[in-house]
Amino acid sequence: MDKDRIASRRVYLRALTKDDAPALLEAVETSRESLKRRLRWVGDANDLEYFRRFIAAADASSDSDTWGVFEAKGDRLIGVASLQEMEDPQRGRGRLALWIASDRQDKGIGTEAARCLVDYGIRKRGLHRLFARLDPANRSFRRVLKKIGFRYEGCLRSDRRLNGRWVDQECWGMLKSELKR
Ligand SMILES: CC(C)(COP(=O)(O)OP(=O)(O)OC[C@H]1O[C@@H](n2cnc3c(N)ncnc32)[C@H](O)[C@@H]1OP(=O)(O)O)[C@@H](O)C(=O)NCCC(=O)NCCS
């Protein structure tokens, strides 16, 4: 499995290049309201410069891997998926995060992209544990995590500031030993 391109049935993940900035801006523009409810950075992501900087930072990062999520049919950029916080090789863990453009949500695509991250993170990179955090109101992401085999681990109270209020963060995780062969 190549880090630069991870293929699934309806989507593939590939590393972003600066030429993807316009498509990324467009995907966020069309999904802004739904993404803003869940993701803090969306309020600042208003122009091409933001996405050029985002792509450069992702490329330079030593503790995260980031991919664009593309539809296999038509090659449209419809989201971003990443494994973050992999800073500590001894612990061998990574945080799974992703977003999908609102007009492509609820079609199983987020689940497909998340499975690619699990395969890559555990099978290819050999991470011992993947984890995710979610706002308890985020029923869609919870469902994705359940579908790919993550387990609920507990809840951090008032852990994150989002849209002017403190929100709890549910902790979900999966161990390498739990990945079905
Ligand atoms: C979370 C997210 C990536 C999921 O992507 P997606 O492509 O819609 O995911 P899927 O279609 O594979 O699965 C979504 C599931 O949630 C379910 N769902 C959607 N809204 C729901 C709701 N309000 N209540 C319960 N279930 C809901 C869908 O029915 C589907 O489950 P099913 O396949 O059993 O029917 C997408 O909603 C998103 O980008 N959200 C905004 C960003 C975000 O919250 N990212 C996660 C934190 S990093």
Structural features, described:
- The structure is a single chain.
- This protein is α+β, with helices and mostly antiparallel strands.
- It has a domain at 5-127: Gcn5-related N-acetyltransferase (GNAT) (Aminopeptidase).
- Helices cover 30% and strands 33% of the residues.
- It has helices at residues 21-36, 48-60, 109-124, 139-147, and strands at 5-7, 11-14, 65-71, 77-84, 93-100, 129-134, 151-162, 165-175.
- It has an eight-stranded mixed β-sheet with strand order 1-2-3-4-5-6-8-7, with helices on both faces.
- Helix 1 (21-36) crosses helix 2.
- It is globular, with a radius of gyration of 16 Å.
- The two termini are 16 Å apart.
- The model has no long low-confidence stretch (mean pLDDT 95).
- Bound molecules: coenzyme A.
- Coenzyme A is lined by residues 35, 38-39, 97-100, 105-111, 134, 138-141, 143-144.
